[in-house]
C-alpha cells in the first residue's frame, strides 16, 4: 500500500485559496519555475493527483482511453464549456496520453533557454510596453514565465506568438457548414518574423533599424483559383497601444491596398470562422483589450504534445464526429497539472461582436491551450482550441536547426451559435511548392514585404 502525503482534494483547495487571496504564483508544492530551473521538469511542483489522469479520476480513466459522450462528465471540470458540448452532443472524441514532464518538449529549445537566462529582467515602461533596463525592447524568451497578473500572461503571448524568430506555416484550411460538409477548402501560407527578442537568428536580440517593430506577419492563399494570390501583410509596431499596418493584395485589383486595421473580427475569406483577432488567442495589440483578470486556476485537459502526424507524408490528420464524420480532428490530450484562466474585454474596437474572451494557459509554459469568446449578450459564441507537438516521433524528426521543431499542429475554430467549423492543420507543403520552414532568413523576402505580396499574387 502506498500512503499519499496529500489527499485527492488537496490541489483543489490550494487553487481555490490562491484565487481567493489573489496569490498568483504557479505551483502547488513549491514555486513552479524553481522546480523547472532545478531539473527542467515541473513534476516536483505538483502532487501525484495532478500528474496523471488515472490519479485524477481515481482509476476511472487511464492513458489510451477515449473520452466520449459516455464518460465526459468524469472530466467536465477539465474542459472549457464548448469543447464539453462538442463531446457531449456532436460526437467529438479525445484520446488520453500521459502527462509530459520534460519542459523542453513543450516549447522551442532556444526560447526556453532564453526564458531561463532572462528570467526577472522584464519590466513594463511608462507606456506599458515590455522593456529591459535602459528602456530597450525585450531580449528573448518569455518575459514573465512566473506571471502574477493577467496582463503579464497576455503580454507574453502577444510578444511572441510562435516562439520562433521566424516561421512559415504551410496550412490546409477546411470550412464546414452546419450539415457537416466541407464547403470551402484552402491552401494557405502564414509567415511570422520577429525583429526584436530574437534568440537564434543573427543579429540577436534585435534586427537593426527595426527595433520599433514587434513582428512582420502575412497570410496568403495558394488555392483554390477563386482565392489564389490573395494576400495580407501586418506590420506590428512595438508599442502595444497601436494597431498594425495592414496591407493586402487582391488579384482582381492587381495592386497593393492599405486596409482598415481595426476590423479584426471578420473573416479574411468566404466560409471561414477564423479572425485575425484569434491568432494565438492574442491576435490584437495588448492594449486594444483591457480588464485582464485571472478568474480561475486548476488542472485541464489539453492537446499540448501529440499533435504531429509523422506517419502521413504531408503530416495530414484524420477526422471524426459531426453529421458526416468530418467535423473534428483526431486529437490526443493530456492532463495539464495547472491551467490559468484569464478574462479580457475588447476596449479598442467600436463594433466588436464579442464582449469578452476567456483564455486558458498552461501555467508551466504560459502557452494558450483554449479560448472561448462571448457575444454582446454574454452568451458563448466562438471557440479556438489548438494542438501542439514536438515534431519528433520515433525515427521521424523535423528540425528547426539544431533541435526538433516545436509548433502548433492543428486548430479548431468553432461558432457554436451557427454550428460552422473551421479546421486548420499545419502540413509539410502546399500548392505552389511552399513548405513549412523555421528560422530561415529567406522567409522575410519571400513572404513579408509588399514586393512579396505582389510576387505571390502574380505567381
UniProtKB/TrEMBL annotation:
InterPro entries xref list: DUF1329, TAT_signal
Pfam family, one: DUF1329
Protein name: DUF1329 domain-containing protein
Species the sequence originates in: Solimonas terrae
Amino acid at each position: 500500500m502506498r500512503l499519499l502525503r496529500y489527499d485527492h482534494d488537496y490541489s483543489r483547495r490550494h487553487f481555490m485559496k490562491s484565487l481567493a487571496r489573489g496569490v498568483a504564483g504557479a505551483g502547488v508544492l513549491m514555486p513552479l519555475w524553481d522546480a523547472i530551473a532545478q531539473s527542467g521538469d515541473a513534476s516536483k511542483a505538483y502532487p501525484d493527483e495532478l500528474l496523471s489522469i488515472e490519479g485524477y479520476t481515481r482509476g476511472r480513466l487511464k492513458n489510451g482511453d477515449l473520452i466520449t459522450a459516455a464518460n465526459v462528465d468524469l472530466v467536465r471540470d477539465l474542459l472549457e464549456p464548448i469543447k464539453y458540448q462538442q463531446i457531449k452532443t456532436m460526437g467529438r472524441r479525445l484520446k488520453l496520453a500521459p502527462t509530459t514532464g520534460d519542459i523542453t518538449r513543450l516549447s522551442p529549445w532556444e526560447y526556453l533557454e532564453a526564458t531561463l537566462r532572462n528570467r526577472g529582467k522584464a519590466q513594463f515602461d511608462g507606456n506599458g510596453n515590455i522593456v529591459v533596463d535602459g528602456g530597450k525592447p525585450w531580449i528573448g524568451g518569455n518575459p514573465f514565465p512566473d506571471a502574477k497578473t493577467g496582463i503579464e500572461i497576455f503580454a507574453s503571448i502577444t510578444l511572441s506568438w510562435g516562439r520562433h524568430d521566424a516561421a512559415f506555416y504551410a496550412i490546409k484550411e477546411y470550412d464546414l457548414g452546419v450539415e457537416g460538409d466541407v464547403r470551402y477548402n484552402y491552401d494557405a501560407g502564414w509567415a511570422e518574423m520577429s525583429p526584436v527578442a530574437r534568440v537564434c537568428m543573427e543579429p540577436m536580440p534585435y534586427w537593426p533599424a527595426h527595433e520599433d517593430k514587434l513582428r512582420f506577419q502575412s497570410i496568403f492563399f495558394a488555392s483554390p483559383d477563386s482565392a489564389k494570390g490573395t494576400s495580407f501583410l501586418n506590420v506590428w509596431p512595438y508599442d502595444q497601444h497601436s494597431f498594425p499596418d495592414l496591407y493586402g493584395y487582391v488579384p482582381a485589383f492587381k495592386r497593393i491596398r492599405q486596409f482598415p486595421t481595426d476590423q479584426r473580427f471578420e473573416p479574411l475569406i468566404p466560409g471561414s470562422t477564423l479572425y485575425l483577432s484569434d491568432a494565438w488567442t492574442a491576435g490584437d495589440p495588448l492594449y486594444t483589450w483591457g480588464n485582464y483578470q485571472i478568474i480561475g486556476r486548476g488542472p485541464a485537459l489539453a492537446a499540448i504534445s501529440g499533435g504531429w502526424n509523422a506517419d502521413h507524408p504531408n503530416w495530414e490528420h484524420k477526422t471524426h464526429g459531426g453529421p458526416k464524420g468530418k467535423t473534428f480532428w483526431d486529437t490526443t490530450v493530456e492532463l495539464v497539472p495547472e491551467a490559468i484562466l484569464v478574462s479580457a474585454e475588447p476596449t479598442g474596437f467600436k463594433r466588436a461582436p464579442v464582449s469578452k474572451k476567456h483564455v486558458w494557459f498552461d501555467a508551466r509554459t504560459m502557452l494558450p491551450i483554449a479560448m472561448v469568446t462571448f457575444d454582446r449578450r454574454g452568451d458563448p459564441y466562438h471557440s479556438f482550441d489548438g494542438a501542439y507537438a514536438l515534431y519528433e516521433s520515433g525515427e521521424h524528426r523535423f528540425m528547426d536547426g539544431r533541435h526538433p521543431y516545436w509548433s502548433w499542429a492543428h486548430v479548431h475554430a468553432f461558432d457554436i451559435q451557427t454550428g460552422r467549423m473551421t479546421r486548420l492543420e499545419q502540413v509539410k507543403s502546399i500548392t505552389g511548392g511552399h513548405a513549412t520552414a523555421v528560422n530561415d532568413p529567406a522567409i522575410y523576402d519571400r513572404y513579408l514585404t509588399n514586393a512579396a505580396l505582389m510576387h505571390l499574387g502574380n505567381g
